[in-house]
């Protein structure tokens, strides 16, 4: 991330901001959701949204919305702590269809990002918060348009967030087909996104089994990871 601005006392800098150090007490974990798990969560969202929302706008129930909403709520609850702390999320947006003249259609070309910041953790601590987040993310996707595609992202805003902010960043895609890649030495046995860092990043990929499932990667300190794993698996039993 670059820094600086137009102010004389804060000149522009092309130096990259330092990455946070990964401490020895940080662990990685891959959570696997089967096609059946995702369908069960989809049906739960349909039930909860029909009883919780008066909006006539249809809820987008894509695999991404379902999975990201589910893990977002679990991450907020696993952190616990101050309920008034700021939280937010960011995910990638495919902008290929907005380009004129058209651009090459290979997957991953022309990516932008959508972010929502300065929410409060307490919003996601109660019952049926899964459907609240799904509605929020669904609306974020629906309102994205060509004007947003041409906006320059305010990356400086990320660096000015309060240190206690829990800002969930989703990397990867459930449609990338990473386990189908073969560069001459066979398909991969395990795919890991190394840049998810510590705490606020998650990775998403299609399942290595090719059965319509999803793999979600996390990188957290052990006490928080233990709480997260319990929440992730318990939520599938409700």
TrEMBL record:
Keywords of the record: Acyltransferase, Transferase
- Establish whether keyword Cytoplasm is in the entry: no
Gene3D superfamilies in alphabetical order:
Chloramphenicol acetyltransferase-like domain
Q: Name one Pfam family in it.
A: Transferase
The GO molecular function terms of this record are: acyltransferase activity, transferring groups other than amino-acyl groups
Q: What is this protein called?
A: Phenolic glucoside malonyltransferase 1
